[in-house]
Amino acid sequence: MLTQNVKIHESWWFDVSATLDKSTLCAENKPLDRYLTIGIACFARYYAEPASIEDLSVLIKAAISENVPISIIGRGSNIIVIDTVYNGLVIRLNHPFWKMCQRLDSDYIRVGSGLRLKQLCGFAMREELGGFEFLEGIPGTVGGAICMNAGAMGHWISERISRITFMDRAGTIHMLNREQLDFGYRHCGGLEDQVVLNAELISTGITPALEIQLLIETFHAKRRVSQPREPSAGCIFKNPEGDYAGRLIEASGLKGVSVGGARVSNCHANFIINDRDATGSDILSLVRMIRNEVFSKSGIMLQPEVLLLDARWEDVL
Ligand SMILES: Cc1cc2nc3c(=O)[nH]c(=O)nc-3n(C[C@H](O)[C@H](O)[C@H](O)COP(=O)(O)OP(=O)(O)OC[C@H]3O[C@@H](n4cnc5c(N)ncnc54)[C@H](O)[C@@H]3O)c2cc1C
């Protein structure tokens, strides 16, 4: 993930792009603001939306052999970036190839990693398969949700996972059952540095579509009053054991506090919103300020939940 001091042979990108299928999208110096829900301005030195497993493998192997850092993004709803340029390759599984959704035997569904959770929920409702309703309002993809073990309303995506197929950085494909993965709070051990290709999910069984719809509407109503509408990357900090990051931030008097264009949401204190052209460094400064204030008031040091595209938190905090 390191972006600094990377030696890049300029011709490698031209060479690799030329070998890929026409439907694989490749770009240089690609603006990323549209691909990160927080909408901060930055560029990816190299950018690709592979249209097949073969092209994904070619891209990964080429970048590795050139020592170019790689970042996979889904909907970018849990990612912020500090610098204005990411000097690496961003791979986004946005081609329709990655968005398949298929009913398997009995209570199972197979989904591509680029499928949006909202689409998964719509499909499950049409198939009258219950158990996915809590995912509807999470603005991510299946791949991002698995890597983050996304959860809401008392449930986690790990509860619904049966099997995951992924590619390692040598381009080899593997399959693991849920029991072989180490799911934790906003984390899935075993998938670091891998690319999730697809997953088999298990429902809670046949459920009338109307029942599913009512549950989704109830969850929606809860979100509408408890989460900001402005651009954000979701919850900035993990909840510490036995408490809530939002409560601690609010109790420290930080609601509405801003640095540059980044502001602590008045609606939910664990969200930093892009108020007006926030930069990555505005957000980083605000994160540092929140951690210091909360620590001095409560003795608790909050840990970030949101991820950095171009650095590691331990190197910048
Ligand atoms: C308004 C708002 C509300 C939110 N509410 C919730 C909530 O209720 N619960 C919750 O858990 N989260 C929530 N989030 C955070 C976020 O939506 C989730 O973490 C989501 O699952 C991230 O999915 P994504 O596709 O956007 O992943 P990204 O943000 O794009 O990526 C997240 C991580 O997954 C990795 N990744 C993504 N796709 C792949 C892949 N195919 N293979 C390998 N690695 C991959 C990335 O490299 C990165 O490390 C919220 C965010 C917002 C903006």
Key features?
single chain; 317 residues; alpha+beta; 5-stranded antiparallel β-sheet; 4-stranded mixed β-sheet; 8 helices; 27% helix; disordered N terminus; binds flavin-adenine dinucleotide
Can you give a write-up of this model?
- By secondary structure, this protein is an alpha+beta fold.
- It contains 8 helices and 21 strands.
- It has helices at about 10-20, 55-65, 115-125, 140-150, 210-225, 245-250, 280-300, 315, and strands at about 25-30, 45-50, 70-75, 80, 85-90, 100-105, 110, 130, 150, 155, 160-165, 175, 180-185, 185-190, 195-200, 205, 230-235, 260, 260-265, 270-275, 305-310.
- The strands form 7 sheets. It has a 5-stranded antiparallel β-sheet, covered by helices on one side.
- A hairpin with a 2-residue loop joins strand 9 (about 150) and strand 10.
- Helix 1 packs antiparallel against helix 2 (about 55-65).
- The longest helix has 19 residues, at about 280-300.
- The radius of gyration is 20 Å and the shape is globular.
- The relative contact order is 0.14.
- Residues about 1-5 have low confidence and may be disordered.
- Flavin-adenine dinucleotide (FAD) binds near residues 76, 79 and 233.
